Each structure stands twice: as C-alpha cells, then as structure tokens.
C-alpha cells in the first residue's frame, strides 16, 4: 500500500511544482509582485513533498527500502528543505518586502532534486508505477 501511495503522490508533487514555478515565472516576466497565490502554490508543493517524505519513511519502516536507495532518500530530503526555505524566509519578511524570485529559484532547484532523486531509483520519472 505504501509503495503505491508513494509512487502515485509523485505525480501530484510534479504537478504542484510545475504550477508553482510556472506561476512564479509568469509573475516575474509580467513584472507583477508577490501575492498570496504564489505563497499558497509553493506551500502546497512543499507540503506534498513533506507528505511524500512521511509515506517514504513508512515505506522504509515496512522493510521495502534497500540500501541502494540512499541517494534517492538524500535527494528527497534536500528537495524538501529547498522547497521549504523560500516559504519560511518570505513569511518572516514584511509583506511589502516579499519577492517572487526566491519561490521560483527554490521551486526549480527542488524540482531538479526531485527528478534526480526519482532517477536514482532507476525508474522513469513519469510512468512505470
């Protein structure tokens, strides 16, 4: 059960990440500033990664994880941290000082780490269960 949940959640994560990055790029290109939508999209993206980490930990505790997947595990922890950092930093700033670019950079780096982490399992990014 955990294996199938873990495999399926990745599609939601990739979709949320793409949405957050594309919306952030739209804001940057059109010269619009920070708004609550980018905060919510980025928070959803990071939240899904955190959920995935919890399911992955449950999967590991169930005995389905192999030592060869340590690269996958490390990439995913780094992706979760990178996705969370801009959210936490921007939340502490006054609203008038918040910018969009940290969300875009954090999202792109987190997505790259996620893709590399998926590839570390030897499975395809999309498809393959």
Give a quick rundown of the structure:
Helix content is 75%, strand content 0%.
3D architecture notes:
- With 129 residues, the protein is mainly α.
- 75% of the residues lie in helices and 0% in strands.
- It has 4 helices and no strands.
- The chain is elongated, with a radius of gyration of 15 Å.
- The mean pLDDT is 90.
Please work out how many helical segments DSSP would assign. 4
Distance between the termini: 12 Å
Task: Assess the beta-strand content as a share of residues.
Answer: under 5%
Structural classification = mainly alpha
Unreliable stretches: none
Fraction in helix:
over 70%
Order of helices and strands: HHHH
Biggest sheet descriptor: none
| Average pLDDT reading | 90
Tell me the overall shape. elongated
Beta strands, count: 0
Rg over C-alpha atoms, rounded to the nearest angstrom: 15 Å
């Amino acid at each position: 059960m955990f294996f199938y949940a873990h495999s399926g959640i990745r599609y939601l994560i990739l979709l949320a990440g793409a949405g957050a990055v594309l919306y952030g790029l739209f804001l940057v290109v059109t010269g619009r500033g920070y708004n609550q939508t980018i905060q919510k999209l980025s928070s959803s993206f990071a939240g899904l990664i955190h959920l995935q980490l919890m399911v992955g930990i449950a999967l590991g505790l169930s005995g389905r994880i192999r030592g060869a997947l340590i690269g996958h595990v490390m990439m995913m922890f780094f992706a979760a941290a990178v996705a969370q950092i801009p959210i936490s930093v921007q939340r502490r700033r006054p609203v008038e000082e918040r910018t969009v670019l940290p969300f875009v950079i954090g999202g792109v780096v987190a997505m790259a780490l996620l893709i590399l982490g998926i590839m570390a399992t030897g499975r395809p990014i999309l498809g393959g269960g």
